[in-house]
Design a protein that fits this description.
alpha/beta; Aspartate Aminotransferase, domain 2; 16 helices; binds ligand F0G; Aspartate Aminotransferase, domain 1; about 450 residues; 5-stranded mixed sheet; single chain; 2 domains; 3-stranded antiparallel sheet
């Protein structure tokens, strides 16, 4: 297959019309939404790249599985089908369904994290970090050195810094309940973690007698990157690689809204029967009985089928190649896009895109809003607003990078859509100096990107 063509390995049987709009209409809608794209209605968006979570197009087999879903309260046939698929893939005996990923995090952390705990990771997702803090713990990200070099290519920028992890396990041994590895590393640009890095983490966990938890949301994308980039894996299937990765983990937390190609659902997978009992007892209080965990039987069935499909090499090739194709075109035009391409989206360094804006003028918000105004494209700021804060003296605190993420929903958009997004970004980049910054009108107290409102600067 020519690398210049993105071959979508599916035919389209059901279509959902895209409501086109004019820039004037969008200008009004964005002002009404307080210049925060989270507050738009979805019909006001042309290409929605806000997230790859819960936004996948399901296959005919998944829709058929929905029809056959068993809605029994206890002992549903759909649960046992999902259990069998998940046991084989995640290499764990106990499979606990939950309504989405963060519910699983809440469940596990409730049992394992005590006040004062320190949780090391290659990169916590924001809800994962919030669930650690909720238990009185401190999430600590130890990304490898290459992760901070946005414009320098390296094959496994999602890796954890192993010497830093070892030093922390030595200095804070008593406070560390487990080590958490996120594959791929979402907040670090959707970058993969190598098998070598995961194996070395496992060795450290064994040496220091700590469980290893894998947040496996995007495990199939990570497995494909290992196959393509890591020595010795070229002849292995993505599924076999995923099984080898998961065999290293004591516990897997998983959001089915990503690599189960489902619109809802999640799992906790583990070996430890005694811990599983405690999780199931709490599950009944918070999510539901242990054979449905807050989901309808049909959702369990759709997840089971999605887990079978997501490891297909032709699908993974299309998926990874789409984002790579967009990144290649942007990189060639010197747009400051994070390289190499991530698995589920492209990330733009907004500070480098708008060099005339200071961090206080929120370049990331300016980029998100301009993409919407010019092209009806909805992206998300993962930078100064999302990860920054205002300290007690009123001084703003900013994260190291002001990133904007354009996440691709799975199997939803075609090469034409990807090309359109690239065109809009390129035309905006040529006129970047004309774009103004933003200020807060209402600053939300936590996870500020969701609910804050803004005004453009004069
Ligand atoms: N872990 C990672 C790495 C994630 O990316 C997410 C969600 C979760 C856990 C939580 O899963 O949404 O099912 O509760 N990420 C979405 C995103 C929301 O847009 O990146 P959830």
């Amino acid at each position: 297959m020519s690398s210049e063509i993105i071959f979508e390995p599916f035919r389209i049987k059901v279509v959902e019309p895209i409501r086109l709009s004019t820039e004037d209409e969008r200008r009004q809608w964005l002002a009404d939404a307080g210049y925060n794209v989270f507050l738009l209605r979805s019909e006001q968006v042309v290409i929605d790249l806000l997230t790859d979570s819960g936004t996948a197009a399901m296959s005919q087999e998944q829709w058929a599985a929905l029809q056959a879903g068993d809605e029994s309260y206890a002992g549903s046939k759909s649960y046992f089908e999902l259990e069998a698929v998940a046991q084989e893939l995640f290499q764990k005996r106990v499979i606990i369904p939950v309504h989405q990923g963060r519910a699983g995090e809440h469940l596990v952390f409730h049992e394992l994290i005590e006040r004062g705990a320190v949780v090391p990771s290659n990169g916590h997702f924001d809800t994962t970090a919030a669930n650690v803090r909720d238990r009185g713990g401190t999430p600590l990200n130890l990304p490898c050195a290459a992760a901070s070099q946005l414009r320098t290519s390296a094959p496994f920028k999602g890796d954890i810094d192993l010497p830093a992890l070892k030093a922390l396990l030595e200095s804070h041994h008593e406070q560390i309940p487990f080590v958490l590895m996120t594959i791929t590393n979402n907040t670090g640009g959707g970058q993969p973690v190598s098998f070598a890095n995961l194996s070395a983490v496992k060795e450290l966990c064994t040496e220091f007698r700590k469980p290893l938890i894998i947040d496996g949301c995007r495990f199939a994308e990570n497995a494909y990157f290992i196959k393509m980039r890591e020595h010795g894996f070229a002849d292995e299937s993505p599924k076999a690689i995923a099984q080898r990765v998961f065999a290293l983990a004591d516990i897997v937390t998983f959001s089915g809204k990503k690599d189960a190609l489902s619109n809802i659902g999640g799992l906790v997978c583990l070996y430890d029967e005694e811990l599983a009992e405690r999780l199931k007892n709490r599950l009944v209080v918070t999510e539901g009985f242990s054979t449905y965990g807050g989901l309808a039987g049909r959702d369990l069935a759709a997840m089971a089928q999605g887990l079978r499909e997501v490891v297909e090499p032709s699908y993974l090739h299309y998926r990874i190649r789409t984002i790579e194709w967009m990144v290649e075109r942007l990189d060639r035009a010197k747009v400051p896009v994070l390289i190499p391409a991530g698995g589920h989206g492209l990330y733009i360094d907004a500070a480098a895109f708008f060099t005339h804006l200071s961090p206080e003028q929120f370049p990331g918000i300016a980029l998100v809003n301009e993409l919407y105004l010019r092209g009806g494209i909805r992206a998300v700021e993962l930078g100064n607003v999302a990860f920054g804060s205002t300290d007690e003296s009123g001084k703003p605190q900013f994260p190291p990078h002001d990133l904007v993420r354009l996440a691709m929903p799975r199997r939803v958009y075609t090469e034409a859509h990807a090309g359109y997004v690239v065109e809009i970004i390129l035309s905006l980049f040529r006129q970047a100096t004309q774009v103004r910054g933003y200020r807060f009108v209402k600053e939300a107290p936590v996870l500020r990107h969701f609910r804050s409102t803004f005004a453009p600067l004069d």
